[in-house]
Amino acid sequence: MDEILEILQNNAKADSKDMAKQLNLPEQEVKKRIMEYEKKGVIIKYKAIINKELLTDEIQDVTALIEVKVTPQKDKGFDSIAERIYRFPEVVSCYLLSGGYDLLVIVRGPDLKTVSSFVSEKLAPMENINGTVTHFILKKYKDDGDILISQHPKDTRPAVSA
């Protein structure tokens, strides 16, 4: 992958001037390549990763990972079913999997009841859906490569050994 993309993937706020210095390229070249990536859709958007657990005044969303068994459609495979699922506003992500389940759907809602209702009233009754297993996220430690828990000083006590 292009080094410019790697830098932006790790820090969406990276400055083109700093990238140019780091990569030993003219700043205009860096800007040009970024604009080309945006135009081609390689760079879809820029975003911040928020540790919502530190926002104590805010109500926390509920996130669920849902494994979905699907009967693929003739001449369409999994794509049309996946599209029907990922078009729901509650769906954050949708992946085709190998293994015991066909799709992994990540759903977010304001509360447990809303997410449960989505699964029972919208997802599970869909044609070609053969079964679902829902896992609710209780706590995030690391998300998309970023550690979310606060880094406390290391415990200086000796380790307990058997």
Written description of the protein model:
The protein folds into 2 domains: 3-40, no CATH class; 54-139, Alpha-Beta Plaits. With 162 residues, it is an alpha+beta fold. Helix 2 (16-23) crosses helix 3. The model has no long low-confidence stretch (mean pLDDT 88). The N and C termini lie far apart (46 Å). A hairpin with a 6-residue loop joins strand 2 (91-96) and strand 3. The chain is extended and about 55 Å long. Helices cover 31% and strands 21% of the residues. The strands form 2 sheets. The chain has a 4-stranded antiparallel β-sheet with strand order 2-3-1-4.
Characteristic key phrases:
single chain, 162 residues, alpha+beta, Alpha-Beta Plaits, four-stranded antiparallel sheet, two-stranded antiparallel sheet, 6 strands, 21% strand
Helix content: 25-40%
Biggest sheet record: 4 strands, antiparallel
Can you tell me the CATH topology of the largest domain?
Answer: Alpha-Beta Plaits
What do we call the CATH homologous superfamily of the largest domain? Lrp/AsnC effector binding domain/regulation of amino acid metabolism (RAM) domain
What's the pLDDT, averaged over the residues? 88
Number of strands: 6
CATH architecture of the largest domain: 2-Layer Sandwich
Based on the structure, what is the oligomeric state of the protein chains?
Answer: single chain
- Described by the principal axes of the CA atoms, the overall outline is extended
Question: Roughly how many Å apart are the termini?
Answer: 46 Å
Side by side, the strands of the main sheet go: 2-3-1-4
The structural class is: alpha+beta
CATH class of the largest domain: Alpha Beta
Using the CA coordinates, give the radius of gyration: 21 Å
The number of domains: 2
- The proportion of strand residues reads 15-25%
Uncertain runs are none
DSSP helix count? 5
Q: Name the helix and strand elements from N-terminus to C-terminus, one letter apiece.
A: HHHEHEEHEEE
